[in-house]
Amino acid sequence: MGIEKYDSEVKFIASSQDCVYNHLSDLTNLEPLFDPIRIAALKERYPETPEIKLDNFRATTDECTFSISPVGNIGVQVIEREPSKLIKLTGSQSVPFQITCWIQLLPVDEQNCKIKITVHADLNPMIKVLVGKHLRQGVNSIAEALTKIKYP
């Protein structure tokens, strides 16, 4: 097993760093990402993304679970928050490999910020071959989806 690192591109969000942090640090606010219309739009924009079906989203402020076909049930929980800068998540026991995700926010000015997602996954060589490319594409797709949220 070896730790693999996957970084998204740095993306621009037309909302303040504090506003984005406050919204994303509460996992119940991620439900719009599971909207079938939004998923279809991302699939159209990134046609190389594998066919997956996301559903059964459930969340509390600190933890969320959902189903990904064909993988199964996935759980994610917040393990660290650094106000306005960082949200660190990890996979729950239902994830087939150890994964840690950082959502990093940087201010551009008072009304705009940048976001970057970094994922560290402990993958054996076989799993790396099967999912490595999809994880790389996935972190960029997630970062892009987070730029499309209407932040309060």
Question: Can you walk me through this structure?
Answer:
This protein has 152 residues and is of the alpha+beta class. Helices cover 27% and strands 42% of the residues. It has one domain (2-147): 2-Layer Sandwich (Alpha-D-Glucose-1,6-Bisphosphate, Chain A, domain 4). It is built from 3 helices and 8 strands. Strands 1, 2, 3, 4, 5, 6, 7 and 8 form an 8-stranded antiparallel β-sheet that branches. The longest helix has 23 residues, at 125-147. It is globular and about 45 Å long.
What is the secondary structure topology, with strand pairs?
Layout: E1 2-7, E2 11-13, H1 17-24, H2 36-45, E3 53-59, E4 63-69, E5 72-82, E6 86-91, E7 98-109, E8 112-123, H3 125-147
Antiparallel strand pairs: 1-8, 2-8, 3-4, 4-5, 5-6, 6-7, 7-8
Radius of gyration: 15 Å
The percent range for helix content is 25-40%
SS strand fraction: 35-45%
Helical stretch tally: 3
Number of strands: 8
At the third CATH level, what is the topology name? Alpha-D-Glucose-1,6-Bisphosphate, Chain A, domain 4
Supply the number of structural domains: 1
CATH class: Alpha Beta
Order of helices and strands: EEHHEEEEEEH
Please state the average pLDDT score.
Answer: 85
